[in-house]
Amino acid sequence: MQILRIVFYFMIVFILFTGCSGKENQMFVKNAPQSETPSRVSVDQTYKIKPHDRLSIIFFEYPELSTKSKDLSESDVGIEVHTNGTITMPIIGEVVVAGKSKDQVVDMLYRRYSSYLEKPALRVEILNQKIYVLGEVKNPGSIELLKHRTITPLKAIAERGGLTDFAQRDVIKVVRGNRESYQVFHIDLTDMHSVHNNNVGLLPDDIVYVAHNRVKDFNLPLSGANPSLSWINTLFSTLTVYQVWK
To answer: Which of 3, 66, 116, 230 has the most CB atoms in a 10 Å sphere around its CB?
Structure first.
């Protein structure tokens, strides 16, 4: 009887892997002209500075005011935005930068310093920007966004080790925004048309989430785990997103 039960379970798992995960877990199996293009999200592409961001501020003619050391061999650790959204700068004191883009901060600092200095040309960069890759990837975690480098959702997944065997390849979601106002767009890796239109450059704090397929839902009860992973997976992803945004 035990042998028959094992054979029965093996047959069910085999059917699930060959049937359930057949087309849905292969890339680019749909005919692109016949597929629907998921709607792209219209978002403000300009990143707004937040408390605890670190800013690199470089004055070209007045290096003593810059955050970077005069010793070029040292890295620029920048200046941290206070919890109240301000930074403290030499000469002009405290200025509010939270909620502004880096270009807006450049313009504001230029005008403030122009009262004291002649042509205070400067540059502002945000040092600690990251995106997050969660769900069915081999190494979930964050990726630092470097200057002059574009990372798309597919590149981000690849950098975190690629998809697991349980990834649902037609349910890749990118979450953008914060708890008060956020947007989600969807990428179907089985549809080349969807990938072409939605594999866009990621912005700081974007979250790439890869859902799990039905095979994983079925595997846990077989191994004695109860209940199914689905609600645990939802709970985990919700808590993780909350931790990222809080």
So the answer is: 66
